[in-house]
Write a structure and sequence with these properties.
- By secondary structure, this protein is an alpha/beta fold.
- The protein has a single domain, classed as Deoxyhypusine synthase (Deoxyhypusine Synthase, 3-Layer(aba) Sandwich).
- The protein is built from 14 helices and eleven strands.
- Strands 7-2-1-9-10-11 form a six-stranded parallel beta sheet, with helices on both faces. The chain has a three-stranded antiparallel beta sheet with strand order 3-5-4.
- A hairpin with a 2-residue loop joins strand 4 and strand 5.
- The model has no long low-confidence stretch (mean pLDDT 97).
Length: 321
């Protein structure tokens, strides 16, 4: 027994914690590699996440899902998501309606720097909305979306196009956005589907609802989206997912993947706590119990702000590809 205990102890303490050594002109990937060797907390998890992503991106048999809530698209991380799609690193995007709102609005108007601690009553009087520490004037959001979207919807209708899946309507807008900074532009250009199961929960959905008030035969067919997702799942040899935050976008990815026995790769970034039982706080290991992630999958949960973590991870991963 003593020999067995010694062997177990030796196995457990086989990897030494190493200090990070910062050097001039160090690349992001060199730093990430040292973060893994440093052994410390979320830094190591970030580095492990990059290793999984690189393997997933290189796996030609793997259908790669990406999910995100909308809020990060109001920030500069819109560019990171755009580059994932522009460089064809993901095959399927599942998100919320607000991603469409912020991506389109920012193609036509600017958002601005603010602070978390501001006088929100005063902002409201001035017609400025606060999203965290980002300021969104009314004319940069609802007003511009209505002014730009309604003519496009009318154009589509007059072309005889009256029933769309969410993917179809998103591609139609991507085709009409002359902005290479846009997520929708590159989704259409590279024919990468974006699905929004909660399509009415945002300004984009509200604008379509408003259009139906005078065009009752204009419809969104969410079941067409579900059929396409079904085909992705059952045709895939492997599947993987990079997921930011929780909610409907994360759940729709893992929900569909349970029908093929679970994801083969999963990287999840969250700031939510686990102890309240929420999906946002649920670690990937919980999804294993539901069969939404395979028991032998390569997976990691990374705690922290995605606006910090994701740019570092993707920069590191791209340098290896």
């Amino acid at each position: 027994m003593k020999t067995e205990a010694k062997s177990k102890k030796k196995e457990l303490i086989s990897k030494v914690v190493k200090d990070i050594s910062l050097k001039p002109k160090m690349t992001v990937d060199e730093l990430v590699s040292q973060m893994y060797e440093s052994g410390g907390f979320s830094a190591k998890h970030l580095a492990q996440g990059v290793n999984i992503l690189v393997e997933m991106f290189k796996d030609k048999d793997c259908v790669k899902f990406f999910s995100t809530p909308a809020c990060v698209v109001a920030t500069g991380m819109r560019g990171v998501i755009r580059d994932l799609i522009k460089n064809k690193l993901v095959d399927v995007v599942i998100t919320t309606c607000g991603l469409l709102d912020h991506d389109l609005a920012r193609s036509w108007k600017d958002y601005y720097h603010g602070e978390f601690e501001m006088d929100d009553a005063k902002l409201h009087k001035l017609g400025i909305n606060r999203l965290g520490n980002v300021l969104v004037p009314n004319d940069s959001y609802g007003i511009i979306l209505e002014r730009k979207m309604q003519p496009i919807l009318k154009e589509l209708y007059e072309e005889g196009k009256k029933t769309f899946s969410t993917k179809d309507i998103i591609w139609e807008f991507g085709k009409r956005i002359d902005d290479e900074n846009s997520i929708l532009y590159w989704a259409y250009k590279n024919q990468i589907p974006i699905y929004v199961p909660g399509i009415t929960d945002g300004s984009f959905g509200s604008q379509m609802w408003m259009f139906t008030q005078e065009h009752r035969d204009f419809k969104i067919d969410v079941f067409k989206d579900e059929q396409e997702l079904c085909n992705f799942i059952f045709d895939a040899k492997k599947t993987g997912a990079l997921m930011i935050g929780g909610g409907i976008s994360k759940h729709h990815v893992i929900w569909w993947n349970q029908y093929r026995g679970g994801l083969d790769y999963a990287v999840y970034i969250t700031t939510a706590v686990e102890h309240d039982g929420s999906l946002s706080g649920a670690r990937i290991r919980e999804a294993v119990s539901w069969g939404k992630v395979r028991e032998d999958a390569k997976y990691i949960t990374i705690d922290g702000d995605a606006t910090i973590i994701l740019p570092v991870m993707i920069a590191s991963a791209i340098s290896r590809l």
